[in-house]
């Protein structure tokens, strides 16, 4: 399996689950949406022309209208942008559920620009504060910032790709009170220095915008424990108000978001429909991919225009693109493993060309703002209805008829099962992890004491995927209230000094400056400072870190951090005995199994959409608690509506148990401690332990991929529970 890594080392499944659609629809929203996705440059009706009266009178902010036209060059607000912006400028928080391309960004960009006008001199020059945007993808942030800067807006990102000069320039703009919008990734909130910096930002954080906010909900399809920290961060930095944005939120997820950020569910939740009348949903089934190739070629021949073909694995993008080129199509492959330059080139080419077919993993599409994508093809099963909606939502943003075809075949199921089952570790692994967390040194600490761990080491040592490991910690924290994550710490602070170093520290009479001067030890070029031992000397650690950051921003030193440790405060006495720990193992494992089942169900729901005897568009809308407009029961366009024949998924026939392959796995891996691990290897699911044992390229890896996973698990469990002879 090719892991599809993005900037944060997330695999394709993670990424696929980042995006999707919304619910709760009313007819007026539908009209507004259909209108809003009209051709670029044509008049777009704003939602309030047709929509229901706003939940409360929309305050008028002429400065917001002025920014819309002058800075962004748009005539009218669309969907519920005006109501949202008015609420934010009025001082309250909001949760915004607009579909992809619905214009969510403007909901925080316009307030960011006009806070200084709304203040009307109540604050001094440069004291209007900033809007901080937490967004999970570096590439998207960069595009947004570039677009803003081109429009003359002072915007920047804090990300690891920035040069030191750029970083210093951003810090200077923050100090001068010039910067309006700052973007960062959620991982940034783990940086103590950053948290401290944001607490003391000039003018304060006027607005915290949380993009892809559905990741905060444990019930969402892409829960990310790091997202839970954003709510706490909002409180710590005293954000004046929060805006949460997502294209996918079931009512339950929306409730979770509002609750986490204290946003009024009645007044502060803004939803619009996701139904796209111009998208034609089609599906076709085949025994094998090979069998479906001619259909795909025909489809592409008869349906010209910019096309995205989604496949699951990186190597599939290359194989299929090559096949399409052989057939005379202008096709390219795209996946996250490619060089950044190549990816940018491909995206630019796709934006320019109207005939290009891009065969891609889900890494392609986020941030692609092309309105004339004519076809979106799924050549493998998408991970969920949410991902499917999100991906097809990229087609036809110009309002013209666009086609979305889903080719399904039995062999895809294995791939999806591989992803779905990859996150569940064995019970033994979970037990070892909890025994490590509740180790005698930790349990003897008093309530309020600190546990320090390293997630990466633990993931490797206990054969648990990082996301699953983080979820386990999140559960100990949120469900069981045993620990509470605090800011992870860097154990290593090193810095290089400028010629001003001595004089600046001499002039600075603060205890922190004195401590840095005293404890900063010069090695060759770099200085080391042990901030933890300074803590022992009774000086608050944060004082030192803040001072180091100040010096860094001022160009007095060049600071580097490293050796991250995850820190948890003990909030209740920890379990000490084997049986007490086992109770947690049971509870957490039960939930993990439920999550695995949910992941498998998501694939089933996806298949049901096309195999049920019902209109695809309606079924999709209903999944999101929606319906078709005007009480319609059929869209009249999808495969079901046109043929009234259900698609039959062709399942591969069961295979005979492959004893030689089974024996080879057992012979190559002599350990009998973990049946699930053996089953994973035979099925072809990567895990930290398998990677450590260099099994991913061994012939036994995936040698029984055509078997049922549960069958393999049973067979290996029998081997592991046999008494040694
Ligand atoms: N009021 C408006 N009038 C016309 N165009 C608009 C308006 N608001 C936003 N747009 C344009 O719509 C496009 C999509 O906007 P934006 O990227 O903010 O959508 P989004 O909801 O954040 O989508 P995604 O879910 O993909 O992030 C952009 O090109 C943007 O400039």
UniProtKB/TrEMBL annotation:
Which CDD domains is this protein grouped with?
DEXHc_RecQ4-like
| Region Disordered, annotated ranges | 39-59
Q: Which Pfam families match?
A: DEAD, Helicase_C, RecQ_Zn_bind
- The answer to whether keyword Hydrolase applies is yes
Q: Which UniProt keywords apply?
A: ATP-binding, Helicase, Hydrolase, Nucleotide-binding, Nucleus
User: Where in or outside the cell?
Assistant: Nucleus
Q: Name one GO cellular component term.
A: nucleus
Name the Enzyme Commission number(s) assigned to this protein: 5.6.2.4
Mind listing the GO molecular function terms for this protein? Answer: 3'-5' DNA helicase activity; ATP binding; ATP hydrolysis activity; four-way junction helicase activity; nucleic acid binding
Q: Does the keyword ATP-binding apply?
A: yes
Quote the catalytic activity from the record: Couples ATP hydrolysis with the unwinding of duplex DNA by translocating in the 3'-5' direction; ATP + H2O = ADP + phosphate + H(+)
* Start and end residues of each Helicase ATP-binding domain: 85-267
Domain annotation Helicase C-terminal: ranges = 292-438
Query: Which InterPro entries is this protein grouped with?
Result: DEAD/DEAH_box_helicase_dom (IPR011545), DNA_helicase_ATP-dep_RecQ (IPR004589), Helicase_ATP-bd (IPR014001), Helicase_C-like (IPR001650), P-loop_NTPase (IPR027417), RecQ_Zn-bd (IPR032284), WH-like_DNA-bd_sf (IPR036388)
The UniProt family comment states: Belongs to the helicase family. RecQ subfamily.
Instruction: Supply the name of the protein.
Output: ATP-dependent DNA helicase
**Source species of the chain:** Hyaloscypha bicolor E
